[in-house]
Specification:
The protein has seven helices and ten strands. It has about 210 residues and is of the alpha/beta class. The protein has one domain: Rossmann fold (3-Layer(aba) Sandwich). The chain has a seven-stranded mixed β-sheet. Strands 6-5-8 form a three-stranded mixed β-sheet. β2 and β3 form a beta hairpin. The model has no long low-confidence stretch (mean pLDDT about 90). It comes from Chytriomyces confervae. Its EC number is 6.3.3.2.
C-alpha cells in the first residue's frame, strides 16, 4: 500500500507540475468563493487552514486566510513539531503570516519556540474547539477519498481532535473540507488504508465534488 501510494504521488506531482499559474489562480478564486458561502464556514467561529506554498500547483489559501481574519474568526495554521506530529496554532494577522519563517518544504510556518495558542489546548481547557478544518490534498477520487502528501499529519491530528471533542461532549463537531483543483480529481479509486480519514466535503472550482454513481 505504501509503495502504491508513493508511486501514485510521483505520477500526480509530475502531472500537476505542468499547470499554468493562471489556471491555479482562477480556480483558487472560484473555490474560495464556494467555501466562504458554505454553511460550514458561515457558522464556524474557529477555522484551521493550511498555508499554501507560493507558486505551487495547489489551491491558494491566501484569500481564505484573509477572510477568516477579516471576519474576526479564530484562524489556526499548521506547525510541524516532528516528522509525524502537527499542531494547529493561532495566526493573528496577515502581516504576521508574511513575517513567518519558511520551513524546509518552502511553506511559511511559526517557529517552534514561538509561544502561540494551540487549538488542542483550547479544547482541553474547555474554551471551544475548531469548528472547521480546511484540508490540502494531492489528489481526490470521485468517492471523496483524498490522497495527502504522505506524512499523515492531518489524519493523526483529526483523530486526536475528534477524541478530545468526544471527551468534552462535542463529538463530531469539527467539520472537514478539502479543496481541490479540477486537475487533482481522479476517476479511479485511490488506494487507502485504515488510518485514512475521509473529509466531510470536497470543494472544487465547480462547487461540491459530485459523488460518482
Amino acid at each position: 500500500m505504501r509503495e502504491m501510494k508513493k508511486a501514485l504521488r510521483t505520477q500526480i506531482r509530475s502531472q500537476l507540475s505542468t499547470l499554468l499559474p493562471t489556471t491555479v489562480s482562477q480556480q483558487s478564486t472560484q473555490i474560495t468563493a464556494h467555501l466562504l458561502n458554505s454553511k460550514e464556514f458561515q457558522t464556524a467561529k474557529n477555522v484551521s487552514v493550511y498555508v499554501s506554498k507560493q507558486g505551487a500547483p495547489e489551491v491558494s489559501t491566501t484569500q481564505i486566510i484573509t477572510e477568516i481574519l477579516r471576519s474576526g474568526r479564530g484562524c489556526f495554521i499548521p506547525r510541524c513539531v516532528s516528522k509525524t506530529k502537527m499542531e494547529m496554532v493561532r495566526l493573528n494577522s496577515l502581516s504576521e503570516l508574511e513575517a513567518l519563517p519558511v520551513n524546509r518544504m518552502g511553506i511559511r510556518e511559526p517557529a517552534l519556540d514561538e509561544d502561540r495558542e494551540n487549538a488542542l489546548d483550547m479544547v482541553r481547557e474547555g474554551r471551544g474547539s475548531l469548528d472547521l478544518v480546511i484540508l490540502p490534498l494531492l489528489a481526490v477520487d470521485r468517492q471523496g477519498w483524498r490522497l495527502g502528501h504522505g506524512a499523515g499529519y492531518y489524519d493523526r491530528f483529526l483523530e486526536e481532535m475528534y477524541a478530545l471533542n468526544a471527551q468534552g461532549g462535542v463529538k463530531n463537531s469539527t467539520a472537514t473540507i478539502a479543496v481541490a483543483l479540477r486537475e487533482q480529481i481522479v476517476d479511479e479509486s485511490l488506494p487507502r488504508d485504515q488510518y485514512d480519514m475521509k473529509p466531510d466535503f470536497i470543494i472544487t472550482a465547480d462547487g461540491l465534488l459530485p459523488a460518482k454513481e
